[in-house]
Amino acid sequence: MAKYTFVIMSDSHGDRHIVQEIKDRYLGKVDMIFHNGDSELPASDPIWEGIQVVCGNCDFGDYPDYLVTQLTDLTVAQTHGHLLGINFGFEHLDLWAQEQDADICTYGHLHRPAVWKNGKTLFINPGSISQPRGEINERLYAMVTIDAKKAKIDYLTRDHKIYPALSQEVRR
Ligand SMILES: [Mn+2]
């Protein structure tokens, strides 16, 4: 299996500048850039060229609710999460990810960084790049490097520095 690197952000809530900054920093240098919704930007904004983006509960317009990105040997399932009721638990998100046969399922909505594995699927919430909630009061995005054996997940701050307490490796 190839080695892939992804950048994942979410819940920028009108903060266009940081989306542009992350795009400018990584486009063409990583395999994919994902935005998991609640950008509050128009779906027609050219900023989305080169970004895989889904619809959040605060978005309007022509965004997909669910997006499944098939790479040569890796499937990434992406949704904001509100439609699958993730405020109340992850059963529906998990079932949906299983249906997609997802290697990675990435979501947002909760504004809290999270990484866990269930079956073959690695679940990743990149947190919010603009409005963090919960104990970790830091605006974050995620960088994921994955190969056949393991995934490495780092969270980065808005000044693109690794937030070390959240770095982890997960065996596949
Ligand atoms: Mn949100």
TrEMBL record:
Family, according to the entry, reads as follows: Belongs to the metallophosphoesterase superfamily. YfcE family.
Q: Which cofactor does it need?
A: a divalent metal cation
Please tell me the species this chain comes from.
Streptococcus macacae NCTC 11558
Q: Does the keyword tRNA-binding apply?
A: no
**Per its UniProt record, what Pfam families does this chain match?**
Metallophos_2
Residue ranges of domain Calcineurin-like phosphoesterase in the record: 6-148
Known EC number(s)?
A: 3.1.4.-
Top enzyme class: hydrolase
- What protein am I looking at? Phosphoesterase
Q: Which InterPro entries match?
A: Calcineurin-like_PHP_lpxH, Metallo-depent_PP-like, MPP_YfcE, Phosphodiesterase_MJ0936/Vps29
Gene Ontology molecular-function annotations: hydrolase activity; metal ion binding
User: What keywords does the record list, in alphabetical order?
Assistant: Hydrolase, Metal-binding
